[in-house]
What does this fold into?
Amino acid sequence: MTTYPPFGAGLWHFASYLDRYATDGYAPPTTTLEQIALAGSVGELSFVDVNYPFTDGVTVDQVKAALAENGLEAIGVTPEIYMRKYSKGAFTNPDPAVRAEAIAFLNEAADVVRALGARYLKVWPGQDGWDYPFQVNHGEQWRLAVDGMREVAQANSDIKIVIEYKPREPRNKMFWDSAAKTALGIKAMGVDNVGVLLDFGHALYGGESPAAAAQLLIDHGLLWGMDVNDNLRGWDDDMMVGTVHPVELFEYFYTLRENGWEGVWQLDQFPFREDTVETAKLSIRFLKHVYRALDVLDVDALRAAQARQDALGAQKVVQDALFGTIGEGE
Amino acid sequence: MTTYPPFGAGLWHFASYLDRYATDGYAPPTTTLEQIALAGSVGELSFVDVNYPFTDGVTVDQVKAALAENGLEAIGVTPEIYMRKYSKGAFTNPDPAVRAEAIAFLNEAADVVRALGARYLKVWPGQDGWDYPFQVNHGEQWRLAVDGMREVAQANSDIKIVIEYKPREPRNKMFWDSAAKTALGIKAMGVDNVGVLLDFGHALYGGESPAAAAQLLIDHGLLWGMDVNDNLRGWDDDMMVGTVHPVELFEYFYTLRENGWEGVWQLDQFPFREDTVETAKLSIRFLKHVYRALDVLDVDALRAAQARQDALGAQKVVQDALFGTIGEGE
Amino acid sequence: MTTYPPFGAGLWHFASYLDRYATDGYAPPTTTLEQIALAGSVGELSFVDVNYPFTDGVTVDQVKAALAENGLEAIGVTPEIYMRKYSKGAFTNPDPAVRAEAIAFLNEAADVVRALGARYLKVWPGQDGWDYPFQVNHGEQWRLAVDGMREVAQANSDIKIVIEYKPREPRNKMFWDSAAKTALGIKAMGVDNVGVLLDFGHALYGGESPAAAAQLLIDHGLLWGMDVNDNLRGWDDDMMVGTVHPVELFEYFYTLRENGWEGVWQLDQFPFREDTVETAKLSIRFLKHVYRALDVLDVDALRAAQARQDALGAQKVVQDALFGTIGEGE
Amino acid sequence: MTTYPPFGAGLWHFASYLDRYATDGYAPPTTTLEQIALAGSVGELSFVDVNYPFTDGVTVDQVKAALAENGLEAIGVTPEIYMRKYSKGAFTNPDPAVRAEAIAFLNEAADVVRALGARYLKVWPGQDGWDYPFQVNHGEQWRLAVDGMREVAQANSDIKIVIEYKPREPRNKMFWDSAAKTALGIKAMGVDNVGVLLDFGHALYGGESPAAAAQLLIDHGLLWGMDVNDNLRGWDDDMMVGTVHPVELFEYFYTLRENGWEGVWQLDQFPFREDTVETAKLSIRFLKHVYRALDVLDVDALRAAQARQDALGAQKVVQDALFGTIGEGE
It folds into this structure.
């Protein structure tokens, strides 16, 4: 019987969603504690990444208790530095007072990391960037983005921080937009407690190969977390994993295994119109298939094909493993 | 002194916005009446396209009065068939009861068209489409989309209906997604009171040439309304007009003029982080520049260049007109 | 034992290729007769689509003989109306003399269709379109494109003509760029011997759902041929089928089967750096897997899920069929 | 009277082109010496970037003489490491013999840099990358790409080398694909004679802001050369500069000026269907307009707007400068 890796999900997977059109929300809102209960009801999740602040009135102790009750651990804490106050950026906000608030809030979130015993503070500065040509001084953005993150890192040297990069949305362009730029910025910080959380879909719609992005980050010692989902390659659709790009997903997990990367296989999905628990279940079913496919993959043949850049040879063994019954016709 | 065409805007230009991250909104909410007052304060707008339903408690009579007070007319009414109830579609919702509600609601909105003396009912079925491969039966979607629109058209044969197509968002794929598909669907309806509202940005990020889309719709007798904005060609960013694609914008308005199309030059922009009134003013300033540039454009030279597919000849006269001082260096 | 549909390929699948950089070609050139022999050596192909003119000195009789010898039939003939002479278009060339030459050449190609007993003349006007804003009069392009095709159709009313649409390349924008626009243009021709050849990859990178495009064309009685390949959704990469988008490919063939569409499953691939015969073999192996997966697909469950727009329900049965061993973990 | 910066062009701007369809070429071929004469005839060019090897039989001395005769200097030499031999890569070719040949050839090209007194060896490894998921080991690609470039740099420590990055084409994905990744790789080389040539269009269609890419490279001391063109944001169309994205072009040159970057304003365009000399002339006319617009730009107001992230304020002064007559309506 297969022993699978631990699975996880962003707690927001079990929230409801708004957008600029359906302003009444795709479903009734849920509280942090309800979301934890829903995550628990999936039955396959070991970890959640917890938004902070919690919904109204919920305390850290309640969250802690709810996690324990549902057999879950907090893998990370995600401070919401993308609300109205930060609409022109958290680290790179033009207003120094807002930047100071952002950093104070991140320090507060770091305390929640400590309280929950989470592995990292996840920082996704979705509003840091620009919308229009000429709107910002790009040199100044770099300085503010790098200096601000360094400041948070140095103030919290006992915990790990991961940056989740993304090409765009909600800003038309995000500052931390690719694996290479994030690695370059982290090097410029000169600290050792900042790494990267790699989102499969962000790499994909940003025009990266997610597998190549993973390898680059691993080779720079920076791949400290990751999550998966899917999209149509033009936007962060946060669809169910495996429904559009199963082959690149398989390459992604192959790359992680080849490098001995061991970590949580997390979901970052937004089931706008779907049952959130059932979406998680179906997604994990697919991830298990991927995991078993890695077990039967002819790795020697694949390595040999790659050494020749032999696309046909590589695809054949990949198809044999991923599309289990493909060989039956022969 | 130049006499400009009438300018207009979607009333939502003066609203505030949410998205899936900044769920507290980019600015405090405004009422329908406040939005009308803001539109009036632009000082250059003659028309607005009015969302329906109005914000809480506002009546048609109040809207009518507010429009008059602010020197505005309603060019169209846009029923909000993209809220939670319609999250799986209005016309193509899998639930016949929801489809019936949608049609009843559209008929109600048609009454508002009549009450306000507007030119058309604008139908933008943003939730009609699909998210995932295999999610829908595409033949059935066509039938429901076409039949439903015909039903609304026949029930309201005294008013005009315009469909605003868009490639995607909020659905991952929208059913009415291009000029040609919309024209094809309208022909299949067999009615004469359905046309198209062409959004410049929708054409652009859908991979169309907005000018070619306009020409196609004019040649099919279907261009009954239009609005403009800008984007980065990958999403409906609804940015200020002229800030990214001024040349294609100029070609678009050139095409309208060449065809003798006379209508309102409308804005469909979402100034998430900007002052809504100032955004409208700066946009209209740019549209006036475009209008004057059309006046000085050497149309004969341009036609002659087009007759040869002479890109250089065409661009030269276009640049002379649009970038007014470009000839000074010679 | 499964009886598969007939397989086919563009004869160019067995050619060598140039591009604007590797002007010495990715492999030594091959003659038409050598290409036929290579196609024959795949051992699974029943049909080829034949470029015209043939390589130097090869005659129709030689082609006929070679096809017979290799157990192949010509499904179509593809005239090369995209060489230097036609670089500003065949049907829409600004020079009437070139347009006349194009039509004469197409009539000549129609004779080859007759001589080879092929099913259709395939017309892919890759140079008909535009590169720059303002380069063409879009109304004039429509007239020339539609009138020219009608003229060819009327002059050859005994044979079928299929238009292969494509969003772009080699022109920055192609005139026939989507299923809907092509259907609209064909209707305007008022002839009954023009249909569409749908290329899976063209639909995909044009932002269409290939399955939805197929359904639309079937519902308009216009899907007369099709071919498959794959790409990264931003360009016509003409990669091996199934290597990137197997799920949408499966949906495409499901749609064909649901509609009782029976035709040749053709390959349109450009193996720039790969062995052309082995590429065809691996591709057909994948297509056979798809065909068998359709046999085991729980169609009733899928239809029921689609009737509810139930993405989870649909994906589950699709994954069960396509990823044969996915259920093993349960 | 305005003193403009020196202008330059890739010598290929004056060549003719093939693609995979128009294999007979868009125009008759020209020799290296003819291309130099054409470049000279533009009358505004001071520099050319010279492809190597030269066309058949042309010697370095002939090139030197022809450049002098036409009032041109070689700014760089571009070795053609993208022909058939290198179709699976130059630096990252799976065959060590081909890699050795590539490096020997680059060393030979470095001698041409010395002979022509050019400023740099320009290295554009267009075939280094991958086409298919699973085709390469991404860690190995990084090692080969970085080690090979270091080897060339160390063997030619007396000359400068610039890497021109590009997202894709001819490979489906290129290894050196963004400003940040190239900077990261150069840092890993540990040499001081490798920098970057930034192509405006490559940044644009790769989803970068060209201005932000320029700033990042300047801040890392790596912007050693640049060229411009335009495209439709989905492919490297190499269109005439200013015809699609004049605003982002203006931001790009503004960023260069703000940083005191002084260098040659080069064209990298492929006028497939246009007169090559006239294309260069019209392009330089536009660049002169941009240069003069920078002279009249209200830089203080722009900086102040950027300090507030005030998109409206920034766009207003930008429009005043770029669209010279826009203020006339007020």
Q: What stands out?
A: Chain B touches chain A at residues 17-27, 80, 82-84, 87-88, 126-127, 131-133, 168-170, 172-173, 232, 234-235, 237, 239-240, 243-244, 270, 272-273 (CB under 8 Å). The first strand of chain B starts at residue 7 and ends at 10. The beta strands of chain B are 7-10, 45-52, 73-79, 120-123, 129-130, 160-164, 173-174, 194-199, 223-228, 265-267. The two ends of chain B are 28 Å apart (CA to CA).
